[in-house]
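Posted in: Structural Biology > Protein-Ligand Complexes

Title: Requesting predicted complex, adenosine-5'-triphosphate in pocket

I'd be grateful if someone could produce the 3D structure tokens for the following input. Sequence and ligand are given below.
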Amino acid sequence: MSEDSKQLISLRNISVDFKRDGKDIAAVDDVSLDVNKGDIYGIIGYSGAGKSTLVRVMNLLQRPSKGTVTIDNQELQGLNPQELRNARKSIGMIFQHFNLMKTRTVQGNVEYPLLSQKLSKNEREGKSLELLKLVGLEEYATSYPSQLSGGQKQRVAIARALANNPKVLISDEATSALDPKTTTSILELLKKLNVELGLTIVLITHEMQVIKGICHNVAVMEEGQIIERGKVAEVFTNPQETLTNDFVETSTNVKSAIERITADPSLSTLGDNQRLIYLNFIGNASKEGLISELSQKYQLNVNILFANIDQVDGENVGYTIAIITGEEASIERAISDLQTAGVRTRLLQAKQKGE
Ligand SMILES: Nc1ncnc2c1ncn2[C@@H]1O[C@H](COP(=O)(O)OP(=O)(O)OP(=O)(O)O)[C@@H](O)[C@H]1O
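-- Reply #1 --
Done. Output follows.
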């Protein structure tokens, strides 16, 4: 397969400017992004970062001020209105507030996009029931949206988005209005659609937990730009930008643990030759064993204040905050050994003799 045919979405130098109070706002600022077929690509950023605007560019619901949009080797800006309508069918979308039609039944909602296809009533009914089965809601075909829970409404919206057999599903904060358990079940459904149908998914969110749950790749957006991108496991364990680090540490509870520990004098008032240190490691939990091994080797006392282990894209990632006590040179050597073994270390606080 050539590099080109692997790409499903290709955005080149996209900028979107809006006018507000007579001033230009760069909602998206010179963004290039490639999404490969079969990928689950997450775009994360705080509110106002430009995520929704960027994904609306992917089907030209938002025309960019600059740049080109190519979907499956077809440049969208070159299409006439009829061709664009057809191209848009290959891009399904789901949203935070589901956008279902209240006066139509569940099945009626799923059938709606099929009305523009040359299908008989029977074929439409068959297809919509098949889609409802796929999302686990065939028993609710005759119910109305108001009779469903949020998670069920989102399943209906997913079935509807799949009606035209799209190549890509864009999920715009689709789990933001759902509780954590329902969020997990919707993410599991998206993962299943990705695996079983080979559906490419672009998912925008402000929660790293969502990215960690199902994405293979991630882009971090701030002020209209992509400031960092890469494989989720890599970005998670070695974030380069402050904002990325902030997302990672919030989702792993490391941020709140550091705040709690440094605000508590009984934990953060260090004695002589003590260091408060943060350790982050990927791979096997045996790195935990490494800490006790090094503490024996260098005669250090390690007091673990916080530890968390997480799964990112199938890999274990560990986070530990500890106070290490011992001779300064021994601490230095132990930290150097940890780094050699692939552990990321960060000094949070230190007190040397005589301070
Ligand atoms: N139609 C519009 N007219 C003017 N400004 C807009 C318009 N749409 C978005 N913006 C502005 O563009 C910037 C990016 O908005 P966008 O909705 O893309 O961000 P976001 O990251 O998706 O945030 P959120 O999750 O809150 O929607 C914001 O400053 C927003 O106010």
